[in-house]
Amino acid sequence: MNRRQLITTLSAISLTLAVSVSHAAQPLQVQVYNPGEKAIFPVTSVIISGEHDAVLIDAQFQRNDAEQLVQRIKQSGKTLRTVYISHSDPDYYFGLDVIHAAFPNAKIIATPQTVAAIKTNMNGKLAYWGPILKENAPQKLILPHALMVDHLTLEGKAIDIKGLKGPSPDRSYLWIPSLKTVAGGVVVASGIHIWMADTQTAQSRKDWQTTLNNIAALKPAIVIPGHFLGEAPKGLGAVTYTSEYIKAFGAEAAKAKDSAALVSAMKTRFPQAGQPASLELSAKVFKGDMKWPQ
Fold first, then answer.
1. Full set of structural domains in the chain with CATH
2. CA angle centred on 196, ends 193 and 202, rounded to 5°
3. Which superkingdom does the taxonomy of this entry point to (predicted)?
């Protein structure tokens, strides 16, 4: 190899290294959208962005909120590649028709457990919520495709689906290792009375606590609650809040003579919590005033 060839080769290597370093220096970014008290449910959507592409976690409940979410994604300048639905409750997926209309090439996926639950209940959920939502109801329902692996990938970086092998695989969450961030979905909440009607047995609440302990064991820097009002707490604050609420609800439900007494006790213990309707319905279910699911 002569001198000119050597210089050319070294220059090419230097350029390759520079490009690699530049690419490695582009971390993922997370943007949280939560409509707060304006919405029936303060449900969280998470936009995870790379240098060029993006993944959306959850699609909102109301049409107007899904439209706001679309604007956020468009303003980012990223190409939406994937929409991941984290749970089967309608506040996570009713906005899919708005998202799909704006980004028709984005894949819409969920775990097999979530897809099966949505398929079973989606028409009944629309029949119930449609008259309540009125113009903010979905114009059509979209069923996600089943994701047969336990992770997503965005520009070479992993987004892991955690909890699939745990005690409640239908209540999973996402872990972004490169950011030490958890998107908690239905498992984590903050600043609200938490929906308890789906965990009526002591074992289901124990399993929930196990999932929260598994989140804490990851030592995340950020935990994004699936539902929250006010400012989401830092670190493990939302995990602690959720754990304490579950314990308190179970203890007060065992003591309360009726649903009204349970509601009163929980409002006393969590005086700043929003979403009292969730508490009132959960209390009725626990004290036998109504059956859930209907």
1. 27-155 (3.60.15.10), 159-294 (no CATH)
2. 130
3. Bacteria
